[in-house]
Amino acid sequence: MEIITILIGFLLFVLILLSIPVDLGFYLKKDETLEYQAELCLLFGLLTIDMTQKTRKITLPKKQKKEKNLHLSSLAESKRFIKRLMRLIKDIFHELQIKELRMHWHFGLGDPADTGMLLGLLQPALLPWKNATLSGDFQEAVLEGYCKVEVRIFPIRILGYMLAFIFSGATILVIKNALIK
Fold first, then answer.
1. Is residue 144 left, alpha or beta, with left meaning phi > 0 and alpha meaning psi from -120 to 50?
2. DSSP-derived 3-state class of residue 43
3. Global pTM value
4. Contact assessment for residue 129 and residue 13, using Cβ atoms and an 8 Å cutoff
5. Which of 40, 67, 86, 136 is least buried, going by the fewest C-beta atoms within 10 A?
6. Burial class of residue 136, CB neighbours in 10 A (0-12, 13-18, 19+)
7. DSSP string over 12-27
8. pLDDT bracket for residue 63 (50, 70, 90)
């Protein structure tokens, strides 16, 4: 009986922890150099974790050629998996609460037509925010500006989406096929 009480108490404690909001802050600035900062605030700001990496070593592994035998069934499974993954990403973004968004980017792709097409695609997405501007440079290729975003998310809200993704038929088939090969 004591073990059941301890397990129920532990599950309640975990549920309470998962219902506490998590704040994520990102800052990115690009001019001649690239500056970025990311931090994670837990327990209403009592615990702040700096996620910015100080040193960064990247070693790329040598690519080995593999023979790929694509079957129609594996292609259909991967399409179902990608569709399910995109739904998970959409659901998680739906649960994000954007507390602050300040952004100004000045970009150009070198070709005025390409710059105009990209500007036409991105500008409508920024309409809900007052402090988000995007300007195009139709003369030269350039990328400069800054972006500051603060987001709040409740982990318990995305737990259901994560479990539904993990135990979906498409994910299980992809995992099963990856383990068999």
1. beta
2. coil
3. 0.67
4. no
5. 67
6. buried
7. HHHHHHHTS-EEEEEE
8. low
8: left (phi over 0), alpha (psi -120 to 50) or beta: alpha
CA distance linking residue 132 with residue 130, whole number of Å = 6
Give mean pLDDT, residues 134-144: 91
Residue 125 to residue 133: CA distance in whole angstroms = 11
CB contact at 8 A, 132 and 101:
yes
Q: Where are the alpha helices (DSSP H) in the chain?
A: 2-18, 72-95, 112-122, 155-166, 169-180
In 3D space, the residue among 100, 101, 102, 106 whose CA is nearest the CA of residue 134 turns out to be 106
Hey, what are 61's tokens?
Answer: 């592994």
Cα–Cα distance measured from residue 160 to residue 164, given in angstroms and rounded to the nearest whole number: 6
- Please name the residue that has the structure tokens 């979906």: 168
Residue 97 bridge partners (DSSP): 152
- Residue holding tokens 């219902």? 19
DSSP 59: -
